[in-house]
Amino acid sequence: MGGNLDWSVLLGEAGHLLAKGAVVTLELSAVSLVLALVLGFLVGVARWSSIGPLKPFCWLYVEFLRNTPPLVQILFWYFSATVILPNSVLLALRHYGFPFAAAAFALGLYHSGFIAEIVRGGLNAIPRGQYEAAEAIGFSLPQTVWSILLPQLLRLIAPTLVSEAVSLIKNTSLALAIGVTEITYEARYIDYSAFRGVEALAAITVFYLVLCLAIATLGHLLQRWLSRNRRRLA
Amino acid sequence: MNWHLVLSPDNIRRLLIGDYPVALGGVALTLVLSLLGMVLATLLGLLIGYLRFAGTRPLRWLAAGYVEVLRNIPLLVLVFWAYFAPPYFGYEPSKFVSVLVALTLFNAAYIAEVVRSGLLSVSVGQAEAARALGLSPFQQALYIMLPIAGFNTVPAMTGRYITLLKGTSLAFLIGLSEVTEIGRQINNRLLIAPVEVYATLLAIYFCLNRSISAGMRLLEDRRRFNRLFCRFAR
Fold it and tell me: Are A119 and A153 in contact (CB under 8 A)?
């Protein structure tokens, strides 16, 4: 039975490994989140605007990324990069840890498909009258975007964006498939090297739980902050 | 390009059914896992969602706790719990059962939320009418609330089922020979055609998920939905 669980291992070498893994998980999450947000906003706006030639491309982009498993996408980019990318780029990436770069790219791309749809949905939900009103009172385009479009868009999509960020953090665990030493990888390592799998799994479960709930709470606060002027304006 | 190497008759057969007479694998195993996972996760999700909506207070808290915990840890961690933890307690689980249990528990949490939002969308009048007719709480749930909520949640369920199917790819990380694992084996044997192998996998998953969307769209017809799931209503 589980009488031989020894939680003190988490204070020693195993805990050190998990802490290193946690840092990699956070780094990977941050890099892919930035990539996902940038690409997602670009594609989302492109899908929303009715620029003809972009439409089929954006449709394929979103549908393909959303309908294939993130794990297979990570493997695809990892194994295909050596064929697709020129050698000079590969050498430059090696400096940063090639698996990390591949995982960050794959996860960023995967979640950009979802963020694009969130952004498009948000933009569609802003009534036409808002732009017409902005035009009528003589706002320039940057002014319209900055003070009419963005505040409303962010307020609308902040909750979904935050749950997408949580989903991204959870998906960083898949990077262990290509040897990124994030926290789940370290837990597996502790399992087969020190036979402390249950303790390690419990530790990373708590880690993910606390991290994701913290992000969700921050998102809730952000949502309240974004809606602070709502009543006054309405 | 080396498509002829990747898409040889033997490889196609392995991708579709694995080493069938010996062990079922490939797309067939992915489908078996997904379909079983869908049925089990939906049943558990219905139960938890209903408890969170209409249970007594301790049951509601229990259901809410389940949803919050399961939604905030990665599916991969759950798969590892289901496969690597039981041996520490003297039980050797099969790979198939481990993945199925993890998929079911994980997706049930999301489906519970879908079900709960569906139940909230049932108009107050319908719920009151059910009570006024003197139906027992069980009859209210079975004949009135769940059929209405079920129909309202078909689009959201489509998304959950697609996520579930994508999740089956994690099975390869514990060595279950579903389609991703077969693809990995083919890639390891060929070594010179990673782009082709993983593009094939992506295409397979894309087709499977589009089929789910197409199948679920058929259920968005209320008469068809009722004929399939509400036989008792006639």
Answer: yes
- Is the ipTM here above 0.90? yes
Q: Assign A49 to helix, strand or coil.
A: coil
Instruction: Using a pLDDT cut of 90, give the percent of chain B over it.
Output: 76
* A208/B73 CB distance under 8 A: yes
At residue A205, the pLDDT reads: 96
- The pLDDT score that the predictor gives to residue B232 is 64
How confident is the prediction for chain B on average, in pLDDT? Answer: 92
Please name the helix (run of DSSP H) or strand (run of DSSP E) that holds residue A19, with its range, or none. helix A13-48
Contact B164, B181 (CB under 8 A): no
Q: What is the pTM of this model?
A: 0.92
What integer best gives the mean pLDDT of chain A?
A: 90
Q: Is the pLDDT higher at A2 or at B148?
A: B148
For B91-96, the CB contacts below 8 A with 24+ separation are: B95/B171, B95/B174, B95/B175, B95/B176, B96/B33, B96/B176
- Rounded to the nearest angstrom, the minimum Cα separation between A198 and chain B is 6
Q: Is A172 left (phi over 0), alpha (psi -120 to 50) or beta?
A: alpha
Mean pLDDT, to the nearest integer, of A17-27?
A: 95
DSSP notation for chain B = --HHHHT-HHHHHHHHHEETTTEE-HHHHHHHHHHHHHHHHHHHHHHHHHHHHHS-HHHHHHHHHHHHHHHTS-HHHHHHHHHHSGGGGT----HHHHHHHHHHHHHHHHHHHHHHHHHHTS-HHHHHHHHHTT--HHHIIIIIIHHHHHHHTHHHHHHHHHHHHHHGGGGGGGT--BHHHHHHHHHHHH-S-HHHHHHHHHHHHHHHHHHHHHHHHHTTSHHHHHHHH-GGG-
Q: What are the extents of the domains in chain B?
A: 3-233
Which of B84, B172, B191 to mutate to probe the A interface, most A CBs <10 Å?
B84
DSSP class of A68:
S
Q: CA nearest A70 in B: which residue? A: B166
Q: In the block, which residue shows the tokens 């304006």?
A: A233
Q: What single DSSP character describes residue A145?
A: I
For the cut 90, the answer to whether the pLDDT of residue A94 exceeds it is no
Please tell me the CATH superfamily of domain A2-233, with its number: MetI-like (1.10.3720.10)
Q: Using CB atoms, pick whichever of B85, B162, B201 lies closest to residue A72.
A: B201
pLDDT tens per residue, range B130-161: 999 999 988 888 888 888 899 999 999 999 99
The architecture of the domain spanning B3-233 is: Orthogonal Bundle (1.10)
